[in-house]
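Researcher: Next entry in the queue.
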Amino acid sequence: MKISSFYIVLICVALACNQPGAGNKHALDLRPNDTPHAKKQQVLIQNDTEKKIIALFDSIFVLPQEDGAAAHPKEEIYIDSLLKLFKNPSTFKLPFEHLSQKNVIIRTSDDQKLRAISWLSPYSGTMWYVQTIAQYDTSNDTMLVASLNRLFTPATETGTPTPFIDKVYFLPGPETPGYLLIGQGQMSGTEPYSTAHILQVAPNQFHVNDALFPKKELPFTTATVKGNDDAAAIRKQIAIQYDPVAMKLQVPQTRETSTGSVFSGRQQIYQFKKGAFVTMGRL
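Model: Structure for this entry, 283 residues:
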């Protein structure tokens, strides 16, 4: 009787760990509703490397939550192992649908060369701490990979280093390739935000170069979610947008009220010219 109870407990734990977002309850769901991911259908695991990657994420998502911790040695150890596995070129084209079902957000650049893989650290609280791995196809049958969070220094880091990366655009430059990373995060339970970073690719390393924005100021906008407000609608209002054809970046503007920040209805416009963004005015 004791043995049967033990196995029942194991089965229940296994089922719980396989639920989308398990151990990741604060995650922002950026999955399209019309994709197979959202339908939670059964998908095939394609190779042993994918199995190992999925197992590592499962291990991360069952780590105990420690509200307020910016990082934790155990998660960083798992990230070290993920970085080694993502260096395998065969992983670049894998859809990782199992991970998408667990609220791991995977986005590929418009030139199909860079992938951003984001997830919510289990050590997040009401303020999200998002981990992101960048994976770049060097075209030499090798992958350049890095934890984006480790590319930020305490001197330049404000709050969470990276949001959930939702859009990735190639930026032409005179020297090294660059990418515009746009995403969403949360400073607290009532303060969602949208921001952007510029990631440059040197021969053997990544470099965050936010100095390519005007006055070296990071595009950033936030608003306050109050009471019965539609949080999803507010996130959409403050979402930063980029037109890769016109090379224009639109950053929603907010204003302060007695109850917090609200969208003002205006947009700050930046134009990408000669390898950097310049201010064009407001709409």
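Model: The longest strand covers residues 260-273.
Researcher: Noted, moving on.
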